[in-house]
């Protein structure tokens, strides 16, 4: 039910509907929309600070421009909530029953005011340049504006710079709004921010101006949360006939004190109590991340030249705790995933022991650095990767391509521990050895204890946890518990005493165990929490290809899934113990 | 035999040996080394212009600094020939019998004066920052300098910008030499070069300075080919206690008129005649690239909104010819591979028909744009990819990871034509359809004619070129001719009349044909000109995993190969018809 039937926003179905409003009405709208962002984020989680900061910018845009003829491209698009409210999707903020009708990012499937699915940073300028080029080719007389909105944090990503460089070549309309809130996901990192500060402090007048250096026109708005100022600024540059940067100073978290004080906490939040600001479902158990950090403490105490590196996401790994203890060994390069890997490679080659923390979906941005820098130079970088799993998340952040991305490359060992003791054993070995890059896939499921059955992983020895016959289950990493359940179900349903194997690695195979299995098994089953294409299972398929062994692979198909509940995904992908056993049964019966 | 026993260079075994030389002797050395670059490049091919331009810079570096205690990192490292001559590898330039003793890039395996295998651009600053950070952690009292040398062309790559941004945070020695020769591989592209031009024109005095904007110290050298000036500049900044940019103006091709006049032609050359400047083995036959461009001409004439896009490598696809005819439809974004894909995605979404030309090894630099921009948005970009093959090349440029990189992603169709007619049929369909991204793998082997057996590739229909029994050979793309030879050899040696199949696609499978094969075949063999891990063969392995069909995959293992002759690689990888048939025979006999 609509919780705010009295809101002015109820009268807005299209951006057109705000064009006749007075400044006071627009300001009222801004306040309403701030309240709605807070209510929805508190209830289901979401981006807080980025949205609170751009209410005026968004209102001014839709007041001045004519969407969707004029086209706006939101960088990362996590700040698009106000845009969604003004473009036909207000109910998803007014009515809790409809909160989940929409995604947290722009989505062409939802509205013709959205042009791309976007969730990674730094792409907006290149996308806008492409839109402008297509406009000029297909409809040379068009007066449509193309507008990119990019945060100062996203500017440090190399792609944004590539986009600026090529934007300067355009000879037609393009507006790049630099939304400068003096924050990345975390604190901004790097020299760029010194220059931006000087521009803010001189009201945009400093002669040293990176945008002008690149041949771009430039204007500055001192208070981007001043609705009048934003409307005036947009009116002035609407229909401009060349590329221009509009540098806008805004306040991240504007209108909600806790979000202003704790900008990093409120960048993105799980459900929280609006009054106390506390997490609704605080995590209190043991975590793999904490176990990893404790091990790094021990390694450093023992004299290992360990350093921890990340690219703007310390929160995902609790790295602020590491930084507090070891500030001289902590590197956050900001949103600069490529730089993170390349500099880690150099540190490893020069004798330090870098441990890189990265999310699978963001590691995609450094694929060439994995290939050309890390693998080619066989640099002993240690990396912890999270989120390379089948998960309920936005398709923009689907991380399940990681096995193909990492394990198909030469020289890299990609390990998948099944419990915390195994993970720490792998980490210790990874830090000790200097022969090759080692990537460890941090499990996403709740922490379990178990044992490590190997100390030196330079030759992977599959662990046969249970010796059975007929069917062998190879359950990798996070799917270890699933493997156990499949074994139980096989026993119960068709009385097969299956062998259960922990392969430990997504790259290496253990030919001895694989060969040995042929003696008293007819079927090998692989279970992997990731995409099947290019994955672990196919490595086993290839090994057994020329032999009589039957192999069945379970994992995710080659597709994107957008915010699908995990249990639904598992059903879709035939990943419940019952479904898996049904499939195995068919093969066993065909023998 | 040493062709120049009279050269002063013969006296140089280590950089130490030039430290006592007079300026005149050093100048003589520069001239000798220029001559040696030309002789070697003319004989076996290599990078010409980049090396001719940095003789003085390299001599000055080794005269002033103490390699390998001081560490120099060459961006791309294609300009490292003089460095190699001065660091123990002069014979590989003096003596034609030893020309091939060394690679064309820095190589730690060759010398302790080299620190990384490098062949892609824009990595040097990040690598240098990592080296400096490791120095400061491991040996806080060290006075060793870390020096990166990066060309102005490489600066447009986003990673270079990420590197500059993080370099500014360093509180210790780091020297970034910007070797500004006013060229990329081709012409520089983008606004950055307007700013650099202003810096050159003001002798570095312009207040608008991107390096200073980012908080970096800065000096300018007007003539980087003036040995005295370079020595003085290096002496001044040696042992500096903070990061500094040394902006050096050099002449690409210096000392050889043809290379100065035709900078792009002489960036990298196949063997050529030193007197006439002409190719020794000019290519005169039909080429796939020309056939593609002719088709684009027809599409444009027919009114299709086709545009051609590339990132600094028009030469690899003859795109200057396209540009000459269709300048308004031609986009070279410079060295900015990520931007190229993102802006192509936007052009496709906005209704244009972008055809992107890219090399497999450089496409690695835009992997996230393939995933997050192109695949996720299902944008109907058309892409032509070259070099995704097993090849005799530097390991830095190994392109054979392309099948895993592209075909394991959702929504993308990766097609592998076997002849020029099939390629054009695929291209026509790719441009006509608007449902999905389509990538076409341009064959690398000499052009062959044949036929297209399909017009609409939205559902891949494997072509059964010959109906046999027992064994089915699936030969993809460039390995089609190999497939034919394997069939002949199978007939000859073990009298098997094998079925021969052209699968056309590296992504999609044709379940009907695969199912049908089970009726009268026991063995399926896949032949792919690329890496097996995550490749086409494994897709077939997975399909047949639960069935009695035996599958054998042929392709490259998960490894790098550096400048290995193709016939040797084929032997290593069991890819000769005889080896393949021997392997098949073993499986057939085991049945």
TrEMBL record, chains A, B:
Matching PANTHER family: 1-D-DEOXYXYLULOSE 5-PHOSPHATE SYNTHASE-RELATED (PTHR43322), 1-DEOXY-D-XYLULOSE-5-PHOSPHATE SYNTHASE (PTHR43322:SF1)
Pathway per the UniProt entry: Metabolic intermediate biosynthesis; 1-deoxy-D-xylulose 5-phosphate biosynthesis; 1-deoxy-D-xylulose 5-phosphate from D-glyceraldehyde 3-phosphate and pyruvate: step 1/1
GO BP annotations listed: isopentenyl diphosphate biosynthetic process, methylerythritol 4-phosphate pathway; terpenoid biosynthetic process; thiamine biosynthetic process
Cofactor(s) needed for function: Mg(2+); thiamine diphosphate
GO MF annotations, alphabetized: 1-deoxy-D-xylulose-5-phosphate synthase activity; metal ion binding
Top-level taxon of the source organism: Bacteria
PROSITE patterns given in the database record: TRANSKETOLASE_1
Protein family according to the UniProt entry: Belongs to the transketolase family. DXPS subfamily.
Gene3D superfamilies, sorted: 3.40.50.920, 3.40.50.970
SUPFAM superfamilies per UniProt: Thiamin diphosphate-binding fold (THDP-binding), TK C-terminal domain-like
Enzyme Commission numbers on file: 2.2.1.7
Subunit architecture: Homodimer.
Keywords on record: Isoprene biosynthesis, Magnesium, Metal-binding, Thiamine biosynthesis, Thiamine pyrophosphate, Transferase
Identification of the protein by name: 1-deoxy-D-xylulose-5-phosphate synthase
Gene Ontology cellular component terms for the protein in this record: cytosol
InterPro entries associated with the record: Dxylulose-5-P_synthase, THDP-binding, Transketo_C/PFOR_II, Transketolase-like_Pyr-bd, Transketolase_C, Transketolase_CS
Domain Transketolase-like pyrimidine-binding stretches: 286-449
């Amino acid at each position: 039910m609509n919780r705010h039937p009295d809101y002015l926003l109820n009268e807005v179905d299209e951006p057109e509907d705000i064009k006749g409003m007075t400044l006071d009405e627009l300001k009222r709208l801004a306040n309403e929309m701030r309240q709605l962002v807070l209510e929805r984020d508190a209830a289901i989680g979401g981006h807080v600070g980025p949205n609170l900061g751009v209410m005026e910018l968004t209102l001014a845009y839709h007041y001045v421009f004519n969407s969707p003829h004029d086209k706006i491209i939101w960088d990362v698009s996590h700040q698009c909530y106000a845009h969604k409210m003004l473009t036909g999707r207000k109910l998803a903020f007014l009515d809790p029953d409809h909160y989940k009708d929409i995604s947290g990012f722009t989505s062409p499937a939802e509205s013709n005011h959205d042009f791309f699915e976007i969730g990674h940073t730094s792409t907006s300028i290149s996308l806008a340049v492409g839109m402008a080029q297509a406009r000029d080719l297909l409809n040379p007389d068009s007066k449509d504006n193309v507008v990119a909105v990019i945060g100062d944090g996203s500017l440090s990503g190399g792609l944004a710079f590539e986009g600026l460089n090529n934007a300067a070549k355009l000879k037609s309309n393009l507006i790049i709004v630099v939304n400068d809130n003096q924050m990345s996901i975390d604190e901004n990192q790097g020299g760029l921010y010194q220059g931006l500060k000087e521009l803010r402090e001189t009201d945009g007048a400093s002669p040293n101006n990176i945008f002008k250096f690149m041949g771009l026109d430039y204007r500055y708005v001192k208070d981007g949360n001043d609705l009048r100022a934003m409307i005036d600024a947009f009116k002035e540059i609407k229909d401009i006939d060349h590329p221009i940067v509009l540098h806008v100073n805004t306040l991240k978290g504007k209108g909600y004190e806790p979000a202003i004080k704790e900008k990093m906490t409120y960048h993105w939040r799980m459900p929280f109590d609006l009054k106390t600001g506390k997490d609704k479902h605080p995590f209190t158990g043991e975590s793999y991340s904490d176990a990893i950090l404790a091990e790094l403490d021990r390694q450093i105490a023992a004299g290992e030249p360990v350093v921890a590196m990340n690219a703007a996401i310390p929160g995902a790994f609790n790295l602020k705790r590491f930084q507090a203890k070891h500030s001289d060994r902590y590197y956050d390069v900001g949103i600069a995933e490529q730089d993170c890997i390349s500099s880690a490679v150099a540190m490893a080659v020069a004798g330090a022991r870098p441990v890189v923390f990265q999310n699978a979906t963001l590691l995609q941005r450094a694929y060439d650095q994995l290939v050309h820098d890390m693998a080619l130079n066989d640099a002993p970088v240690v990396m912890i990767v999270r989120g390379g799993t089948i998960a309920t998340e936005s398709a923009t952040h689907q991380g399940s391509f990681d096995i193909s991305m990492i394990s198909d490359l030469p020289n890299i060992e990609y390990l998948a521990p099944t419990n915390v003791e195994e993970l720490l054993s792998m980490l210790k070995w990874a830090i000790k050895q200097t022969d090759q890059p080692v990537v460890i896939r941090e499990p996403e499921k709740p922490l379990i204890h178990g044992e490590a059955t190997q100390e030196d992983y330079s030759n992977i020895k599959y662990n046969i946890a249970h010796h059975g016959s007929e069917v062998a289950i190879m359950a990798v990493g996070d799917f270890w518990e699933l493997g156990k359940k499949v074994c139980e179900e096989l026993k119960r349903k068709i009385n097969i005493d299956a062998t259960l194997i922990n392969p430990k690695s997504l790259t290496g195979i253990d030919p001895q165990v694989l060969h040995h299995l042929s003696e008293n098994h007819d079927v090998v089953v692989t279970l992997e929490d990731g995409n099947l294409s290019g994955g672990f299972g196919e490595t086993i398929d290839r090994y057994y290809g020329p032999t009589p062994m039957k192999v069945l692979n379970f994992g995710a198909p080659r597709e994107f899934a957008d915010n699908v509940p995990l249990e639904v995904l598992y059903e879709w992908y035939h990943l419940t113990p019952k479904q898996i056993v049904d499939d195995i049964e068919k093969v066993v019966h065909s023998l």
